[in-house]
């Protein structure tokens, strides 16, 4: 799940599609939350781009576990893959999510259309 999707889920935001809501709510799906999302939220809270996410940044691990999501660590392969990705997307956090989705051959829950350029399955 990408970072904005996670924040929208935690906030009960209506930005989430019905497909995504059902996907997350279905017990048969294991929802992975990347350490890159923790990094992104903490960074954006610090620089003032996500002032409403201070509680999530302060309690990230608890937020993930309380939702029955699974934390996904960043391995050495992931940043090497992210740094080598071609194409139009320049955001380092999103590139890490793309690299992890590619490396693990898993879908990424996101509304971000630029992810489609990277040969991963995107759920929205």
Summarize, please.
By secondary structure, the protein is mainly α.
Number of helices: 7
Q: In one word, what is the shape?
A: globular
Described by strand count, sense and barrel closure, the largest sheet is:
2 strands, parallel
What's the β-strand tally? 4
> What's the helix-strand series?
HHEHHHEHHEE
Arithmetic mean of pLDDT: 96
Strand content: 5-15%
Distance between the termini: 10 Å
Runs in which pLDDT lies below 50 for 5 or more consecutive residues are: none
Please compute the radius of gyration using only Cα atoms. Answer: 14 Å
Strand order of the largest sheet: 1-2
- SS-derived structural category: mainly alpha
Binned, the helix content reads 40-55%
Textual characterization of the structure:
By secondary structure, the protein is mainly α. Helix content is 50%, strand content 8%. It contains seven helices and four strands, in the order ααβαααβααββ. The protein has a two-stranded parallel ribbon with strand order 1-2. Strands 3-4 form a two-stranded parallel ribbon. The chain is globular and about 35 Å long. The N and C termini lie close together (10 Å). The relative contact order is 0.19. The mean pLDDT is 96.
Can you tag this structure with a few keywords?
124 residues; mainly alpha; two-stranded parallel sheet; 4 strands; 8% strand
